[in-house]
Amino acid sequence: MKNAVVVGHGMVGHRFVEALRARDEAAEWKVTVLCEEALAAYDRVGLSSYVGAWDHKELALAGNDYPGDTLVEMRTGVRADRIDRDHRTVVTSTGDTVEYDALVLATGSYPFVPPIAGHDLPACFVYRTLDDLDKIRARADAAGPGAVGVVVGGGLLGLEAANALKKMGMTPHVIEFAPRLMPLQVDEGGGALLARLVTELGLNVHVGVGTSSITENDSAGLTVELSDGSTIDAALLVFSAGVRPQDRLARESGLEVGERGGIMVDIGCSTSDPAVYAIGECAAVEGRCYGLVAPGYSTAEVVADRLLGGAAQFPGADMSTKLKLMGVDVASFGDAMAATPGALEVVFSDAPKGTYAKLVVTDDAKTLLGGILVGDASAYSLLRPLVGRELPGDPGALISPAAEQVGIGALPDDAEICSCNGVSKGAICSAIADGACDLPAVKSCTTAGTTCGGCLPSIKSLLAASGVVLSKSLCEHFSQSRAELFEIVRATDTRTFSSLIAKYGAGTGCDICKPVVASILASTSSDHILDGEQASLQDTNDHFLANIQKNGTYSVVPRMPGGECTPEQLIVIGEVARDFGLYTKVTGGQRIDMFGARVEQLPAIWKRLVDAGMESGQAYGKSLRTVKSCVGSTWCRYGVQDSVGMAVDLENRYRGLRSPHKIKFGVSGCARECAEARGKDVGIIATEGGWNLYVGGNGGQSPKHAQLLASNLDDATLVSYIDRYLMFYVRTADRLQRTAPWLESLDGGLDHLRAVVCEDSLGIGAELEADMARHVAGYKDEWAGVLEDDEKLGRFVSFVNAPSEADPTISFDESGARKIPVLMGMPRVGA
Fold first, then answer.
1. Which of 25, 263, 585, 723 is the most buried (most CB within 10 A)?
2. For 403, which DSSP code?
3. 332: pLDDT confidence band, cut at 50, 70 and 90?
4. Which of the 8 DSSP states describes residue 401?
5. What pLDDT score was predicted for residue 410?
6. How much is the pLDDT for 802?
7. Which residues contact 790 (CB under 8 A, 6 or more apart)?
8. pLDDT at residue 357 in the model
9. What is the per-residue pLDDT for 402?
10. Which CA distances in Å does 760 have to 202, 553, 764, 769?
């Protein structure tokens, strides 16, 4: 077995290890990874999303610790200090010597710090790693809200850094020596609009000036002097003026490097030593370094192929970029600056609307060379693949308001849709033709859309254009979707399934539509779910207000808001479990579950619990299950808010809310996240300034981290946002769709959801809050509702013709430490 040593474990280094291990079916190579950072590979492209969440795990790349793979050895916090090419070894910072058959340098780049007087003062930082952001955050927190932060550099990374400072509560100033922001990506017209838009969003922009000096002032801050003689007093300064390839190891070991830096490699990514390769930002492929992740991934794939005997070559790089800065779309592709001789520029600028679009075409106006989009980059997915190709129409029409008439069908099959992973339109269409009939299936088959996600709108268009018709029908009895049926019920005040299907459906219904309609009816009223016709629509769990178990018995879960329970209630739970012979278990949602109750015992159990002040925990329904919390500031020395109090209030507010799927909350009293809120449908994490609200997470078969919706909310705003979020989900989600896939499928994703919930873009905020207020006002405990109604009580029998008899088929094995259900026809444990 041969040993490949990888120096560096950023996004590209991780991609190389994944590619090699996926292709090395004969297990020829063992991989040793030397990662100088304490953290394994994370999403450096999404660095600014770390602000607010402050959770390293959120940015971690999937599988970055290679669990269960014995052929990959990860060494985090270990630096490669020296390469001995003669003996093919690497000496590490820990003094170890690692032998290699192939050495892959993936050392990336380092931030360039201009040699300005004062650049090394303690309040000066760079913007490159999570550790850098932690240091900036500490300084920003010490300075307090509204303090000034200066960013030197108005390029892509500079604006990202400025946005991060703004999210930390600072007042950011951006200094750019060029006459416009993002000078490498946008032209004068696009830069002017970009500056106006970000200024409106709270940035202070200084272009056409340099930074002359940085000095400490009497206010324990910095005074930044600009080349025009003006000064800015600031609490901190961040250098984000570009990067340089990290080629120190290569230089010291005698490998050839480029005149402007970077490790010289050929199109096979091999250095001047055939046993050493370089990939990513540190590699100068035929003399040129590439600072984007997509070409870095290409170099990783090339080297993985070469180590296994292939002859892959670097295919060149698409330097196109599309991003959203502080909510402002910016895209640049191809020859954006019209450097091609004879190139023509077609510009469409709409200042009131805040959009700028430019296409660069050949002198006959037939071939697209490049373009720039600012303010609205929706046309990017169509235009970028057309670079170098004949245009399907008039260039002006492609960037005018009528551009929507030109569809993705105009692209040839070899046009690249996903530049991050090199996936063509033809590959996506082939996957669709082979049965990939939705977005997750296409992503799984082709890897398109799995990196930055910028191509997802194009993939959706291809799904539609390929003739894939996804029926919105709920089932054969209703041609409407669940969301449409919800609106019909609301608008018509329909209160029974029979009247709904008679007027808007066909037939008698099935086990798909009946529970869905039952849920909709429950979501739009406070009627008891066992009232009248409603009772016949419920599945077994809802029909008996308890979870049926494998031997026909039921489990009973009383609600414990926020995990709170009085000693007296604990005693009652213990006594009930003892008296009815129930098995007890503490759940992951901070409740006590009692198993083994027969159907005729349920009302008697409920009465004991209700008399003790407890109620149904709705563990049987598609509704709010639990609100998990840590002990928060009332007990914990790290807590900054009362997480228990908030959890109790939220659980009491949303208890009993029927929804397309079960809902779980978590409330953590500080960033240590003991309540695991980021894994919940609604997660709330305390900050010094209030609460951060996360949405769309879940555990289960397909775990998803919740995403940050809003930061530093006061109690009232937090509750109003949750009201809107939950009711918007209840209205619009598909049948049995959890919040995570609902958010993923939502047109516009998190940005659209934030606009609806936080900005009330649809004008329905008050309506959603009113719907929730009606639910809260009308809530009644379902167990108590049964106990007060003799007709409902009559349902809880094992045999209709012998209501006093217990089911003789139910039995348990109690020979061991645990009570275990025994199925009829099955031997007992140990028998």
1. 263
2. G
3. very high
4. G
5. 64
6. 55
7. none
8. 92
9. 47
10. 21, 47, 7, 11
How far is Cα 479 from Cα 346, in angstroms, rounded to an integer? 46
| Bridging pattern class, strands 231-234 and 222-226 | antiparallel
pLDDT, position 326:
73
Q: Give the residues across from 813 on adjacent strands.
A: 820
pLDDT of residue 299: 96
Compute, in degrees rounded to 10, the torsion defined by CA atoms 286, 290, 293, 294.
-50
d(CA 657, CA 551): 29
Q: For residue 428, give every residue at least 6 positions away whose Cβ sits within 8 Å of its Cβ, in sequence order, or none.
A: 417, 418, 442, 446, 448, 459, 462
What's the pTM? 0.58
Rounded to 10 deg, the angle between the 643-654 and 715-732 helix axes is 40
Mean pLDDT, all residues of the chain? 88
Q: H or E segment at 106?
A: none
Q: Please determine, for residue 831, whether its predicted confidence score (pLDDT) is greater than 50.
A: no
Q: Are 131 and 209 in contact (CB under 8 A)?
A: no
In the structure encoding, which two tokens stand for residue 804, read together?
A: 């006093």
Q: pLDDT value at position 803?
A: 59
SS3 category, 14: helix
Total Cβ atoms within 10 A of residue 131: 12
Query: For residue 529, which of 662, 649, 627, 620 has the smallest C-alpha distance?
Result: 620
Q: How far apart are CA 92 and CA 87, in angstroms?
A: 15
Q: How would you class 586 by CB atoms within 10 Å of its CB: exposed for 0-12, middle for 13-18, buried for 19 or more?
A: exposed
341 and 303 Cβ atoms separated by less than 8 Å? no
Asked if residues 263 and 105 have their Cβ atoms less than 8 Å apart, the reply is: yes
Mean pLDDT for the stretch of residues 552-573: 93
Contact predicate 70/61, CB 8 Å: no
Q: Are strands 211-216 and 222-226 parallel, antiparallel or unpaired?
A: antiparallel
Rounded-to-5 percentages of helix, strand, coil across the chain: 35, 25, 45
* pLDDT-above-90 percentage for the chain: 58
| Residue that is written with structure tokens 């992503």 in the block | 443
One-letter identity of residue 328: V
User: Percent of the chain having pLDDT more than 70?
Assistant: 95
- Which are the contacts of 409, defined by CB distance < 8 A and separation ≥ 6? 465
42-80 burial code (b ≥16 CB/10 A, e <16): bbbbebbbbbbbbbeebbbbebbebeeeebbebbbebbb
Worst-scoring range by mean pLDDT, 43-52, 273-282, 693-702, 810-819? 810-819
Q: Which residue has the higher pLDDT, 378 or 204?
A: 204
